[in-house]
Amino acid sequence: MEEAERIAREEHGSVKIAVISGVGTRNYYRKLGYELEGPYMTKWLTAAA
Question: pTM to 2 decimals?
Answer without folding.
Answer: 0.85
